[in-house]
Amino acid sequence: MNVNQETIVEKVIPLNDFSICYNDRGTGSVPVIFIHGFPFDKSSWYPQMEYLSDEFRVISYDIRGFGKSTAGKENESIDLFADDLINFMDALSIRKAIVCGLSMGGYILLNAISRHPERFYAIVLSDTQCNADDEAGKQKRIETISHVLAGGFQSFADEFVKKIFCSDTLKTKPELVKGILKTILSTSTITVTKTLNALANRSDTCNSLQQISVPALIICGSEDIITPPIKSEFLNNSIRGSRIHFIDKAGHLSNLEQPEEFNNHLINFISAVRNQMDNSSI
Ligand code: MLT
Question: Are the C-beta atoms of 122 and 273 separated by less than 8 Å?
Fold first, then answer.
């Protein structure tokens, strides 16, 4: 991912019965928190962390059970992951932040903002959607859980990687593809299957979009087949005053497939939000 991993310092903070491993870099009055998708970890945000940390305080964390965060004993759900985000912010004494979520990270963010709108300065929704799984989607997750439990984790990971990247990335960025495959395979099968269950049972957040009153940026890879552009268009049509960008030659991981373009959209948006906050002295 062209990021010097040696400059990245990891921190750990206990939360109830588990601990969150995170990176916290840079300084600034408006922190930016990144939430990764499934089944990845905080390193999937390193190109954004690297790019923004000269100007902003940027934080990416491993969702419980992923990366180096421990899992705790509670049953995984998107509600629980959203509670974890708020508890994590409390533990870091962050009253409010700009939060950016990709895919499952976006599901968590939409869930959290529907229940705790006062904790967000602005949101970035990348390659995500507000819809819950339909019956066919739930059934597919159940089949995947059985497949993984029957020893099919490697083939699940191999097939998943083919779907998350666009054809250009698969052809031209083998290191990126290999890196993501490694991240997926380093996730425990328990976390993978429990989270698939959490994803299958998540609630729809589409009815809460009209209540969002903070600035919102929506970004989606033009070739995302997991949460296709139409899902982002729906978000954009439903959230007041939001703006949207589609990124060409990108699939589901648009922030990694086209980091320069993604970073440009991101910095323009969060700089505008910060300037607005600074002018109104937060
Ligand atoms: C993700 O990238 O977080 C997942 O693909 C989301 C999903 O499977 O719904």
Answer: yes
Mean residue pLDDT across the chain: 96
Tell me which residue has tokens 């010097």.
4
What's the gap in Å between 10 CA and the centre of ligand 1? 25
1-33 pLDDT per residue, tens: 455 565 678 999 999 899 999 999 999 999 999
Tokens of 216: 């919102």
Distance CA 282, CA 275 (A): 10
Q: How far apart are CA 91 and CA 36, in angstroms?
A: 19
Q: How many CB atoms lie within 10 A of CB 154?
A: 12
Which residue lies with its CA nearest to atom 4 of ligand 1? 38
Quote the DSSP letter at residue 243: E
Distance between CA atoms of 265 and 192, rounded to whole angstroms? 31
Contacts for 65 with CB less than 8 Å, ≥ 6 apart: 71, 72, 76, 187, 188, 190, 191, 194, 195
This prediction has a pTM of: 0.97
Bridge-based pairing state of the strands 10-15 and 216-221: unpaired
Beta strands in 53-198 (DSSP E): 58-61, 97-102, 120-126
CA distances from 19 to 59, 68, 106, 136 (A): 15, 9, 22, 35
For a ligand 1 pocket test, name from 45, 100, 104 the mutation site with the most ligand atoms within 8 angstroms of its C-beta: 104
Nearest to 40 by CA among 83, 69, 79: 69
Q: Are 221 and 251 in contact (CB under 8 A)?
A: yes
| Bridge pairing between strands 58-61 and 18-25 | antiparallel
SS3 state of residue 71 = coil
What ligand 1 atom has the least distance to the C-alpha of 133? Answer: 9
End-to-end CA distance of the chain: 35
